[in-house]
Design brief:
- The protein is mainly beta.
- Helices cover about 10% and strands about 35% of the residues.
- The longest helix is centred in the first third of the chain and has 21 residues, at about 5-25.
Length: about 200
């Protein structure tokens, strides 16, 4: 093991101990062998973490329980083995679920909230919000800088390209990319390969 990797290993084990000793009691749920490095901001009382979760430094994980005079009942749930790299941003006012063994690269954003902009002369952040069911399946891979917008349902084994802007429902085992994102590949179980598709997800 190189000196740099050894230092990283030591730091992660220190943060595993800090999580188990000091951070876990603030969380709604915290599985074993989970590591939470120092977040930019979080609301742990609304967060449920499975086992072996790794949250790198500088992420914002924020549940919204009240906004513009309306009360909400949020839960942010990360399944077993989820990895959330640095500077990710997750906000939710309902139950937002990220499935087991999903990897989210740095700078990604996931939300179930849309800000309304119906009244001129009032800053958007002071107007009401719309909450849309949002979830990410198991074994997904979310590229750096991707934006998962409110109302997105990703199936299992999905891959989201870097900087993609995603909204809508996507089936299991597909690759989505672009702004706005669309399906560009799907896994064909008949031949065991990823094949290109048209915008509707039909094999070419």
């Amino acid at each position: 093991m190189s000196p740099s990797r050894r230092l990283q290993w030591l730091a992660l084990n220190r943060d595993r101990l800090i999580t188990a000793t000091f951070r876990s009691w603030r969380l709604r749920q915290c599985g074993g062998d989970t590591i939470v490095q120092t977040p930019l901001f979080w609301t742990p009382e609304f967060i449920e973490l499975g086992a072996r979760v790794l949250i790198w430094r500088g992420s914002r994980i924020e549940a919204v329980d009240e906004y513009a005079g309306t009360r909400y009942q949020p839960t942010i749930r990360l399944g077993d083995g989820v990895s959330l790299q640095q500077s990710c941003h997750i906000t939710a006012a309902d139950t937002l679920t990220i499935g087991d063994d999903t990897t989210i690269l740095y700078g990604a954003m996931i939300t179930d909230i849309d800000h309304r902009y119906e009244t001129l002369g009032i800053n958007v952040q002071h107007q009401a919000i719309t909450v849309r069911k949002t979830s990410i399946g198991r074994n997904c891979f979310i590229g750096a800088g991707a934006r998962i917008l409110a109302g997105t349902i990703l199936g299992d084994h999905c891959i989201v390209g870097a900087n993609a802007v995603v909204r809508g429902s996507f089936p299991d085992a597909c690759v989505v990319a672009g702004m706005p994102a669309r399906i560009i590949k799907r896994f064909d179980v008949r031949c065991g390969q990823w094949l290109k598709t048209n915008a509707e997800g039909e094999f070419l």
